[in-house]
Structures are given as structure tokens and as C-alpha cells.
Specification:
Chain lengths: 354, 230
């Protein structure tokens, strides 16, 4: 649906203020996909998303949307093309002087294709789509942030676009409202067969709704893949940092003052990190392994999270037993969970022994 | 004491003649201010729009054009109105066939306020967040549609405030135009109030001008609030 080929963007080229905002970006976004781009501020993600509707014109490379190469379009053709690409913004960008209904009708009136009564009908349908039927005659100033973004979404969808671009669309909203907006986007993707591109600095947004994610840093894509893969197996330092912001993977406080060594010695317990994924995430793994191997297992930390509705669990356990028993337990764990990592061995006492 | 009795004498004996003069003067002032305002808005708004859209960061950015136009606007604004009025007499004659009279006065009034209003319009439009322009562009709006459907409606409260300032300025300027045969309340104040020591005439014109300004400001505030939904 969207293909970016060798995109580069340089501001003020040849001067002292020259800034290379994007370097050699190539990516392909499939029809019906929700694609996330995450990065810290200044990484170039705003520039990147603006390439897709040519609000920013690339210095090098080509942009193709729905089979049309935007680079080759005349101004009027580009304006027509932009109507097929909806966009929503962090600051909503609604007209303060127009009512909710008039804001949503805005792109339709620009196009001058529908009659006023047809526009009215379409606006009514769009209001229903985003759940704001009651607010048609209010002004944006009378709405909450979440409602404003819903108006933004209705406006972006007015011209029946195939692509929806979301520029930090939830960054100005509280977590609960953010979730409701993301739910709405997932719902709309289904109903309207939309392709959605989301840029954000909030990992939660990626976690909740993106099929694939690209991590952008210093104007280049450093990591790209299925969200679940990037979350469970981050490659780069920045990605790890971003992931750890939403999924706690640090060692629990309990172990902070205990020495963990690499090698087993008599009487030590193994500290093991377990990752659960998908349908297996709620299986009674710990009890099963404890029974099977005759070891005692204590749980040090654990949580189950969801990535795009798929359960994703993370646990740190301590296994006490002989060297052989522990070895066997590790094999049993490996059979049952997504990933097992032995962090080391320690001689921590039980809490009750203190 | 003697001065106050002189004042009273005039008030009662010349009341009907005086009120006739004041009525005519008021109408002449309203006529000048109305048409000068209308013409100033007709030219000043496009001037302001052009200044804005050619400035840095807007869709027809053109630093050289903006600098030249900006310099012309500033130059016109720095000429004191009373001098401008005399200096453009040939232009006025060319346009209306005469340099004397109420209609002729509209020409310098307009020339004096267009650059002033142009700058005010530019600053009004600048208050519209650029995100709105970006959003409209993303929806396929043409530059003209952005001006007409985004910039002007969104800046309407500020525009009306600035139109009000301009109309009030024109009320003041129109009194000056009176001194070169433009008629109106300023003319009365100078000819009767100043040259013939008619303090009653002077006070009456000043009161009428104060009332006029108050009414204009009141209407301006009312309209501005009407358009403000922020």
C-alpha cells in the first residue's frame, strides 16, 4: 500500500545549519496493516510520516501510495491524492470557529463533489462511526481531548481514504483516553479496511495496536519487525530501553543485594528468567515443572501483559535442587515456555530465614 | 465669570443654527469614515494576506518579495497623515477630479490606513496556528481555500478588533482631513471652535466624536465576541 524507497531529507543543504533528518529510509507497508514508527523526539519520525502525504518533500527517494508515485504529481493531482490519505494530529488541529459537524464537513466542502444534503448525511454517518452523534453542534472548545481527537478522526475519514496517518495522535491524551482512541482505530481498520501508520514516542501505543514496528534513531531505521518479535527479542540498546519502559524486565529488588555468580556450586539456587507467549502463557508451568523434577521453585517476580491482545508473560523464578535436578528443570521449562534464560546462581536465603 | 456667560449666551441663541451645522458635520464625518473604512478593508485585507503568505514558513514564502512589500508598507506608515494628505493631492485630483471636499478626503484617508490595516491583518492571521494550515493541506486544500476557509474564519475575532481600531483611527484622521477642506466635524471644530473662539462648538464636536468612538468600540467588541468560540 505504501512504499518508501531510499528516502532522504536534508534541511538547509550546503549551509552551516545543514541537518540530515532522514537517511536512506526504505520500507513497505501492506494493505490493512497497522504500522508503528517509534523514536525519541528529534529522531525524524514526524518528517517520515509527512513524506507519506508529501507535506514534506523528500530530498532523495520516491514515495508510492496505492500505486501512485507522489514525486511525479502536479500540484492539483497531489491535492486530489491527499484526499485519499487522512491524517490526525497530536494537537487535533480542529477549526475553533466551526462546529463539530462543520469541522467534519470541511474536507468534503473543499472537494465540492457532494451536495450540501449529501454532506449532511455523510457527516451524520461519520459522527456515528466515532460515537459523537450528540456533539454535532458543539464547538471544539466545549469538548474533551478524547472527543476532539474523535472529531479529528471523523474529519480524516470524511473523504473515505485508504490510508490514515496518525502523528502522535494520543500523546496529548491521558492513558485511559489513549486506550479508547486506539480501540477505535483497531475497530475502524476492521470496518473500513484501512491501512494505518502511527508515529509515537509511547511504547504503549505500539504494544496495544501495531502489527509491525520500526524503531527510528538519528534519521535511520535501526530495527524493524513484527511487534511481538521486537518486544520479546529487542536487538538494539534503544529498543531495549523503549521496551523496558512498558514491560518490566529488571531484576526484582529482592535480588539487588545478592551476589549472582555464573557457575553452579553446592547449595546454590538457579535464577531463571522465563518468557511466555501466546496461548501457552497461562499454562500451570511452575507447578508442572516442580512436580516433574522434584525441585522447589519460588517466584521472585512476574507479570502478564498483552501485546496486540496476545498474552505475553515474564517471570523470574528461583529453583533449588541438585545440579542435575536444576538442569532437568531448565530442559522442562524450555519445552513449555517461549524463552528461558539462566541469569545465574545465588545463595539467597528465604525471606522466612531472615 | 464673563467667559461662562458668553458661553451660555451662545448655547441658547444659536442652538438651532449650531445643531444644523453639527448634524451636517456628523453626516459628512460618517460618510468619510464609512467609505474610507470600506475601501481600506477591501485593499488592506488582501495586503495583509499577501504579507503573511509570502513571509517565512508560509506557502508562498518569498523573502525578497516580502522584504520589498514590507518596506513600502513601513515607509507609507511612517509619513505623518497630515503630510501624506497634502503630498498626494495630485493623485487625489487624478482619481476624483478634485482635491477639495468630502469625497476627495476619502482618498488620502484610505491611502493612509491601507498599510496600517495591512500590518494589523498580517498579525491577526499570524495568530492562526500553523498546524491548522498543515491539516488543511493534508486534506487537499489549495492555497486560496486555506486563506478563505481557514485563516480568515479562524482569525475573525482578531480581524474585527483590528477593523475597530482602524475605524477609530479613521474618525481621528477624518477630523484632520477637515482642515484641508474635507468637511466634517473636524472642519467645524477648526473653523468655528478654533478660529471664531466658539468653545461651545468645540465642545460639541468633541462630545460627538467621543460618542462615535464609544459606539464603534462597543459594536466591535460585540461582533468580535460573537465570532469567538475558543
Amino acid at each position: 500500500m505504501i512504499t518508501l524507497q531510499d528516502i532522504g531529507k536534508t534541511y538547509a543543504p550546503g549551509t552551516k545549519q545543514e541537518v540530515k533528518a532522514l537517511k536512506d529510509i526504505s520500507l513497505k507497508i501492506e494493505k490493512g496493516e497497522i504500522f508503528g514508527v517509534i523514536g525519541l523526539s528529534g529522531a525524524g519520525k514526524s518528517t517520515l510520516i509527512r513524506m507519506i502525504n508529501f507535506l514534506e518533500i523528500p530530498t532523495t527517494g520516491t514515495v508510492e501510495v496505492d500505486g501512485v508515485i507522489l514525486n511525479s504529481l502536479a500540484p492539483r493531482e497531489l491535492r486530489n491524492m491527499r484526499r485519499k490519505i487522512g491524517m490526525i494530529f497530536q494537537s487535533f488541529n480542529l477549526l475553533s470557529s466551526a462546529t463539530v459537524a462543520d469541522n467534519i464537513a470541511f474536507p468534503l466542502r473543499l472537494e465540492k463533489k457532494l451536495s450540501e444534503s449529501e454532506i449532511k448525511e455523510r457527516v451524520q454517518y461519520l459522527l456515528g462511526l466515532v460515537g459523537l452523534e450528540e456533539k454535532a453542534n458543539m464547538y471544539p472548545a466545549q469538548l474533551s481531548g478524547g472527543q476532539k481527537q474523535r472529531v479529528g478522526i471523523a474529519r480524516a475519514l470524511a473523504g473515505d481514504p485508504k490510508v490514515l496517518l496518525c502523528d502522535e495522535a494520543t500523546s496529548a491524551l491521558d492513558p485511559k483516553t489513549t486506550s479508547s482512541i486506539l480501540e477505535l482505530l483497531l475497530d475502524l481498520r476492521q470496518k473500513l479496511n484501512l491501512t494505518i501508520v502511527i508515529i509515537t514516542h509511547q511504547m504503549e501505543v505500539i504494544k496495544e495496536c501495531c502489527d509491525r514496528v520500526a524503531v527510528i534513531d538519528g534519521g535511520v531505521i535501526t530495527e524493524m519487525g513484527r511487534t511481538i518479535d521486537v518486544f520479546t527479542n529487542p536487538q538494539k540498546e534503544l529498543t531495549r530501553r523503549l521496551v523496558s519502559a512498558v514491560i518490566h524486565q529488571e531484576l526484582p529488588e529482592l535480588l539487588a543485594h545478592t551476589e549472582i555468580v555464573k557457575e553452579y556450586h553446592e547449595g546454590a539456587k538457579a535464577v531463571i528468567e522465563l518468557l511466555f507467549l501466546g496461548p501457552k502463557a497461562d499454562a500451570p508451568v511452575i507447578v508442572d515443572v516442580a512436580k516433574e523434577c522434584q525441585v522447589s521453585i519460588s517466584l521472585l517476580s512476574g507479570n502478564i501483559d498483552h501485546i496486540q491482545k496476545e498474552p505475553f508473560g515474564h517471570m523470574i523464578v528461583e529453583v533449588a535442587g541438585s545440579k542435575e535436578e536444576i538442569k532437568k528443570a531448565i530442559v522442562e521449562f524450555e519445552r513449555r515456555v517461549h524463552k528461558v534464560e539462566v541469569l545465574g546462581y545465588d545463595e539467597r536465603k528465604q525471606l522466612s530465614e531472615f | 465669570m464673563s467667559e461662562s456667560s458668553f458661553l451660555n449666551f451662545d448655547f441658547f441663541n444659536n442652538f438651532s443654527r449650531m445643531s444644523g451645522l453639527l448634524w451636517d458635520g456628523t453626516l459628512e464625518t460618517l460618510y468619510m469614515v464609512f467609505f474610507a473604512s470600506a475601501v481600506s478593508i477591501i485593499f488592506g485585507v488582501p495586503l495583509g494576506v499577501i504579507l503573511l503568505v509570502t513571509s517565512k514558513g508560509y506557502f508562498w514564502e518569498s523573502p525578497n518579495f516580502y522584504r520589498i512589500l514590507g518596506t513600502i508598507v513601513n515607509a507609507l506608515r511612517s509619513v505623518p497623515f497630515i503630510i501624506l494628505m497634502v503630498a498626494i493631492i495630485p493623485f487625489t485630483k487624478f482619481l476624483v477630479g478634485s482635491s477639495i471636499g468630502t469625497t476627495a478626503a476619502i482618498v488620502p484617508l484610505t491611502v493612509g490606513t491601507i498599510p496600517f490595516l495591512g500590518r494589523l491583518v498580517e498579525t491577526s492571521l499570524r495568530t492562526v496556528p500553523t498546524g491548522l494550515i498543515e491539516a488543511a493541506t493534508s486534506m487537499g486544500a489549495s492555497p486560496w481555500q486555506i486563506v478563505r476557509r481557514v485563516l480568515i474564519p479562524e482569525a475573525m475575532p482578531e480581524l474585527i478588533q483590528n477593523f475597530t481600531i482602524t475605524v477609530i483611527l479613521l474618525i481621528g484622521y477624518s477630523a484632520m482631513a477637515g482642515t484641508i477642506g474635507g468637511g466634517g466635524l473636524g472642519d467645524l471644530a477648526i473653523r468655528y471652535g478654533y478660529m471664531r473662539f466658539r468653545a461651545d462648538m468645540m465642545i460639541s464636536t468633541v462630545i460627538i466624536l467621543i460618542v462615535m468612538v464609544q459606539v464603534v468600540q462597543f459594536i466591535g467588541d460585540l461582533l468580535s465576541r460573537h465570532f469567538d468560540h475558543r
